[in-house]
Amino acid sequence: MRTLHGKVALVTGGARGFGQAIAHRLAQDGADIVIADTGDGAETVRIVEATGRAAVAIRCDISAPDQVAMLQQQIDDRFGRCDILVNNAGIYPTSKFEDIALEEWRRVMSVNVDGPFLLAKAFLPGMRRRSWGRIVNIASNTISRVITERSSYITSKTALVGFTRALASEYGPYGITVNAVSPGRSRTPGVLEDVGGDAAAEERFQAAAKLQAIPRVQEPSDLVGAVSFLCSDDTAFITGQLINVDGGLVRSV
């Protein structure tokens, strides 16, 4: 079923990992796709176009207001609208709290919190005019777990959940829903780089999997069903929610 036929979806961080998988699924659902990323999104464009949908990749640092303004203008010129915003882009440096420099702290907040703020400011007015919109924020199950050396990341993702609920309250009367999903440790390029390569990552993946209700390693494809659902008309009465998609590692919040 092409449940999103005629819609335009913007996926940040769409060049690889979760973002690429989400872009592919929303294209399968019928949406045309914009990939915003600081990296090369050409591979995702090819994956989307293979479904028969239109796609464009735009290099953009979502923490920079002038680049977000440029992104908005290019989307307006190409598609004339943005119906769905998936705030997936994020950074997650590892540092002991006492070693975190203020500049690093601010950089994490600028990408993980300011970025979604700037994008919502850019595209919510159009959603409101059309009385339809979907925003899905990619949070993290680390906000509900005991995790060390991730103070800036966990703080930013907790703020993103608060932002989700605030926007949901304010824009619910206008046919716009705002929800968040929290994945667990997943086999993505970013995680592999973060933990030092395949061998080190696999050990951590398996350790996490043993704690999950579904005892296998999470893949990017495991997240896309929840995102697809939250972007559909079936969720017109679901907003302000946080859904853990982590195989049951976090079973209560």
Please name the defining characteristics of this protein.
seven-stranded parallel β-sheet; single chain; 253 residues; Rossmann fold; 15% strand
SSE layout and pairing:
Elements: E1 8-12, H1 17-28, E2 32-37, H2 42-49, E3 55-59, H3 65-78, E4 84-87, H4 102-130, E5 133-138, H5 151-171, E6 176-183, H6 189-194, H7 198-211, H8 221-231, E7 242-245
Parallel strand pairs: 1-2, 1-4, 2-3, 4-5, 5-6, 6-7
Helix pairs in contact: 1-2, 1-8, 3-4, 4-5
Which strands sit side by side, in order, in the main sheet?
3-2-1-4-5-6-7
Task: Provide the helix percentage.
Answer: 40-55%
CATH level 3 topology: Rossmann fold
Q: Radius of gyration, rounded? A: 17 Å
Q: Please summarize the sheet with the most strands.
A: 7 strands, parallel
Specify the CATH class: Alpha Beta
Query: How far apart, in Å, are the first and last alpha carbons?
Result: 33 Å
Count structural domains: 1
Low-confidence stretches: none
Approximate shape: globular
Order of helices and strands: EHEHEHEHEHEHHHE
Work out the number of β strands: 7
Number of helices: 8
Mean pLDDT rating: 92
Describe the structure.
With 253 residues, this protein is α/β, with parallel strands linked by helices. The chain has one domain (8-186, 220-245): Rossmann fold (3-Layer(aba) Sandwich). It has eight helices and seven strands. Strands 3-2-1-4-5-6-7 form a seven-stranded parallel beta sheet, sandwiched between helices. Helix 3 (65-78) runs parallel beside helix 4.
